[in-house]
């Protein structure tokens, strides 16, 4: 076997339990104003944006990737701030991988959250994550992080660099099939009446 | 897009900072007697085997994988017990992925170790890992864990399920190019005079 002329040079990554990677390739941030159409209670989202500003940070992601190689992995942290919009807890936009069979590891570093999972043909799951818990999200599962706690929900993730993300699928369906809503001191799943089914 | 008839069902993984996964698919263990030919100081290894027994545990791995899908990931923990064989610190066998371009994430959960990295054409690296530190091992890098501390060195790992492992490459080369040896209270790299170059 031969090594390609150029290989990536391994680098140290220092991962904070609060999220963030020293050695990252990039950081991106999502603000309250970016979350239009994500929550079912549109008025609650508008009220939050009016109170906190459209430029209030809601989640941020650091990731690291190399330049070369079809077998490359992207490694990152996701930090989702706590929040409530009506009865719904704060969520990420969620996605299916553009190459739908690509899996993704999420390992919880801090906080308390739920990995909300659905397939386009109607299968569903929801897995609560606290520090030390993880889910190896199989291919073909749409997934979204939900913060059901009072602190930032932070995960370490890893997925194939060729996976890509389809973010439109959820919006096109009127949202995910299930909402994660407050239920006493905890959370519960509630069917989303606006969900019209995923395109297939 | 359509979902395959059978998709894997996501499961919760509970990962111990001491290594081990509740929800694993399998566990495998390596014993002192399995490490013949790994350490340059053969006599030191023989003495250790005589003193502690060939069935003394030296490292163990839990991993989890699903049944389906070319884009699947394997997630696991590696727990490498501390030890010294002559001047060399305790190591895992080390490998290059059989599909050489496949990357692998290692995230340190506990202990103090080194990820020793080499390419078949002579590039080399060594990255010290303590809790919260990680390395996204790029494709085409032979890699081995080394415990340079006094406690178990535990990492969480993730790699493509189709990657496979070539364990013979290192043995065929007379060992890795570099040894990780004791140096005062720390560690240093030392060229391995038995290393004859990797087949290419």
Automatic annotation (TrEMBL), chains A, B:
Its EC number is 5.3.1.9. Pathway: Carbohydrate degradation; glycolysis; D-glyceraldehyde 3-phosphate and glycerone phosphate from D-glucose: step 2/4. The keyword Repeat does not apply. It catalyses: alpha-D-glucose 6-phosphate = beta-D-fructose 6-phosphate. Gene3D superfamilies: Jelly Rolls. Keywords: Gluconeogenesis, Glycolysis. InterPro entries: G6P_isomerase_prok (IPR010551), RmlC-like_jellyroll (IPR014710), RmlC_Cupin_sf (IPR011051). Residues 33-186 form the Glucose-6-phosphate isomerase prokaryote domain. Belongs to the archaeal-type GPI family. This is glucose-6-phosphate isomerase.
